[in-house]
Amino acid sequence: MQFFIPNNCRLINKAWFIFFALGLSAAPVFADGPSGVTNIFKTYSTPARAIANYTILILAVCAVIFVIVTGLLFYTVARFRHRRGDDGREPAQVYGSNQIELAWTVIPILIVFVLSLVTARTIAEVQNAGPPSKALKVTVVGHQWWWEIRYPDLNIVTANELHVPVSETAQPRPSFLSLESADVAHSFWVPQLAGKTDVIPNRDNRMWIEPTTPGTYLGNCAEYCGTQHARMLIRVIVHPAGEFEKWAAAQQSDAGNDAQAKAGRDVFFSTSCVNCHTIKGTEARGKFGPDLTHLMSRQTLGSGAALNTPEEVRAWVRNPQSLKQGCYMPDMQLTDEEMDQLVRYLLTLN
Ligand code: CUA
After folding, report:
1. pLDDT, tens digit, for every residue of 8-57?
2. Ligand 1 pocket, 179 CB below 6 A?
3. Rounded to whole angstroms, how far apart are CA atoms 153 and 271?
4. 79 CA distance to ligand 1 centroid (A)?
5. Is the distance from CB of 194 to CB of 45 less than 8 angstroms?
6. Which ligand 1 atom sits closest to the C-alpha of 229?
7. 178: which strand partners?
8. What is the pLDDT of residue 17?
9. Which of 117, 134, 310, 349 is most buried, taking the most CB atoms under 10 A from its CB?
10. Among candidates 2, 68, 36, 278, which has minimal Cα distance to 157?
11. Cα-flanking dihedrals φ and ψ of residue 226, to 5°?
């Protein structure tokens, strides 16, 4: 690293050191596969890749302009600085140079023109893509503060975790999402898979993803939608070839009816839980809260507010407000015995 750098120039050596240290610390972010970091530059899906390529081009053009402008600025400051012995008079002024004025008018116009064309092309590429016949169709409904996820062709309803198949070159299987809102404006954003799309009441917005690597991708609601906007997280689980069908088949089944959990079932059906939640194969057909048919197959509770463990399920039912203050699920004021029974029942919903 010594070339171009005079040996006595400590400052520049230090700058190099900081540069490499930053590079190394950022390295895990660029590891292969979904990183658990919502990194817009590490993409695993066709539309996200188009947007990332476009962003890199824009950043590169801006970087070149920045370097030229600051370079000229520093050169001018150094070259024309005040020197001892200056006579203090103003230097000769330049007026009306056609070349200079043409250059600083035409070059920016060309740059803006080219960038507009690239922008239009990228938008068209992402938005005009129609679903192929094999595409998976999903309806995502934003609620305060969770995501309802429906697969109309598969007769599946779930929440907060969008399961899709991987799309391979030999067998492309993109997923087309139809975005609706049950209340206020939200925004669906999983940076490694696609751009952000607003979820607006009385409007059917559409987007698509085409993940090329299996794994779990993180996203979040990207439009302020009230108190728990920050805990309106999304997980997209991309299944390897053949695995998605297994997941779908399991989700299509009715809820288990474990005789040992009967007491808890009775608690569930004797309280107002049934007004808000659906459990397939039972009388519970509420639509206000998440479908609980396969509750325990999910990784998190409360749209990412807590991990889905038996302890957290209990804490959640005991008082949802303690894990997600302001959410619309009330504390049902159950006795400890009813709590135990109810949690035992919920844990059978897998
Ligand atoms: Cu939903 Cu922010």
Report:
1. 444 444 554 444 444 444 444 444 556 566 788 889 999 999 999 999 99
2. no
3. 32
4. 53
5. yes
6. 2
7. 139, 206
8. 47
9. 349
10. 278
11. 125, -175
